[in-house]
Amino acid sequence: MQTTQNTQAIPIKGAARFIILSELILPFILLILGVLLGLYQVLARAGIIKSPDLLGINYYQGLTLHGVINAVVFTTFFAVAFGNAIMMHQLQRPLKMGVQWASWVLMVVGTLMAAWAMLTGRATVLYTFYLPMVAHWTFYVGATLLLIGSILPYFLDWIPNTLAWRRQNPNKKLPIAVLGNLVNFTLWFLIILPLATTVLFQMLPLSLGLAQEANVLLSRTLFWFFGHALVYFWLLPSYIMLYTMLPKLAGGKLYSDPAARLAFLLFLLFSIPVGLHHQYTEGGLSSGWKLWHAFLTFMVALPSFITAFTVAASLEHAGRNNGAQGLFGWMSKLPYWSKEGDKWLFAYMIAGLILFLFGGITGIVNASYNLNLIVHNTAWVVGHFHTTVGGLVTLSFLGMTLYMIAKLRGVEVKAKPLALAAPYLWMLGFVIFEIALSISGLQGVPRRSNLGISYLDSSNELLYRADWLFWSHVGALGGTIAVLGFLCFAVALVGTLFAKPVKQPEVDFPIAEAIHEEPTPLVINLRPWVTATLLLIAISYTYPVYESMTSGVLAKSSGYQSIENNLVPQSALREQTKLP
Ligand code: HAS
């Protein structure tokens, strides 16, 4: 089979250009609010802001907006925009505009509905939104429209285009980026199904008053069926960039084409049957099944270890190409600060990779059944996800957003020094934040708590914990540095957005060639992988779902009192959160 990575730029104009550009710009506008609310969170948690709300947005409402905008809306829009562009580029086929418009309208309307519900305090349910918390129906319908809109291109545009490409190129391997993107959206489709089940049959009826009760355990099991694989839906676009673009940006080649394909296929296999690792402490599920999911969670780290090796080998190759000597000399011959051409994009990926080292180590700790009992629901977990989704994922998405906007507008990236400083400030900020939150977590600092009006309020004799103060302040410092990085990025992005075009708009990516391209049947035939994936999901989830249905606790039992709390007006909520 021949190699197939397309490296030709494709001219783009009209509706296709508008759709991809707006799918990048709209979430970026929301992201500004999401990041600023993140700053409020970290300052409130450190007790630097001592208030139950900021500008009328209370702590939990802000936390919900921060999580939903940053982790759900920004990532979903980006995945679709990037998927559209990479499929066009690698298959050299136009997008199907009817499908794209339908997808765009559904995603935008859905986002606006959910944003309205959150901003008006009708959906203060955090980004995980599982029962027993209940939001206004517009939140669920909005989220559903966003998800349906995001999956349409996969079924009605990318799959038909891939099949047409296959017919024209029977002897060529699917380009790696196409494989990665299709794996990602296959995963997306499979995990939307359990989420839709709990949203449509449990949450929405409760919210509309059509049902009075729901099985909370079942809802959570279905949510985490979706919820952990969701993190790989965020991660895989970054991995596509690491495998297909980073080696070229660094000045070299991808070390191994089959290793890249194997990593994506292993994600398909292992991303889903691991959800119970979020429920180790949850009663009603037997420990044998939790242990099985713990085992599979270690397996899902395998493709990331493969990636660490393959990316490091590709970077070593690039460093030696750039003239490096000795065992580790290659590390100093990479274009960390290069402003030449598109090489500035390297900074976003390498800074993300360094953060991901922390995210990976903390993830393995989380996965360990016994260690998880120490860190669960503490600040430790917050550190973990700010170096994974907040680290590699956000940095690569931001860098690629800037890169794609420049190409789609036919302009040069503006304020390159700021664009280059941004990822390193973000990285520095979140390394500090991660260390601080990990230590805080081990001290027992809870996550999702407004510490400023509770444990870190010195006037509160009952709760005050002076020993939590130092690391919370260090965390606030880290968060503030990261927000500074974001502001640098925002200046470069806005400059690029309004710069005068100097060339034809195009879709173009710096796609690397591979050093090793040996034919490897294991990673070419997709059918066994899909079959094994469905089988493993069935084995891992049949009994836990049955157990949840038979031993789940109902939402109105005495352990859960918050359903009404989430539907009360803001003024009443504020009264309730006031401490004596
Ligand atoms: Fe996680 C909780 C386990 C990866 C996101 N995770 C979360 C939550 C989020 C999240 C958002 O087992 C919180 C959910 C909530 O709100 O409750 N996670 C893992 C494991 C991995 C992992 C085992 N997580 C991610 C990724 C995320 C993400 C990726 C987002 C994108 N996570 C857990 C568990 C929990 C959890 C438990 C529940 C905790 C609890 O109790 O609530 C693994 O996939 C990680 C594997 C990663 C590696 C790292 C490989 C390193 C690489 C970098 C190489 C660097 C180079 C640079 C080459 C093994 C690829 C070279 C440098 C030069 C200078 C040249």
The best one-word shape is globular
Taken in chain order, the helices and strands follow as EHEEHHHHHHEHHHHHHHEEHHH
Sheet having the most strands: 2 strands, antiparallel
- Trace the largest sheet across and list its strands: 1-5
The pLDDT mean sits at: 93
Spatial gap, N to C terminus: 72 Å
Give me the count of strands.
6
Structural class: mainly alpha
Give a description of the structure:
The protein has 580 residues and is mainly alpha-helical. The protein has 17 helices and 6 strands. The chain has helices spanning 14-45, 59-91, 97-119, 137-168, 176-208, 216-244, 246-250, 257-270, 287-321, 345-367, 369-375, 379-409, 416-443, 469-497, 527-551, 562-567, 570-577, and strands at residues 10-11, 53-54, 57-58, 254-256, 506-507, 514-516. The strands form 3 sheets. It has a two-stranded antiparallel sheet with strand order 1-5. Helix 1 runs antiparallel to helix 12 (379-409) and helix 8 runs antiparallel to helix 9 (287-321). The longest helix is centred in the middle third of the chain and has 35 residues, at 287-321. The radius of gyration is 23 Å and the shape is globular. The termini are far apart. The relative contact order is 0.13. Bound molecules: heme-as (HAS).
Task: Give the arrangement of secondary structure elements.
Elements: E1 10-11, H1 14-45, E2 53-54, E3 57-58, H2 59-91, H3 97-119, H4 137-168, H5 176-208, H6 216-244, H7 246-250, E4 254-256, H8 257-270, H9 287-321, H10 345-367, H11 369-375, H12 379-409, H13 416-443, H14 469-497, E5 506-507, E6 514-516, H15 527-551, H16 562-567, H17 570-577
Parallel strand pairs: 4-6
Antiparallel strand pairs: 1-5, 2-3
Bound molecules: heme-as (HAS).
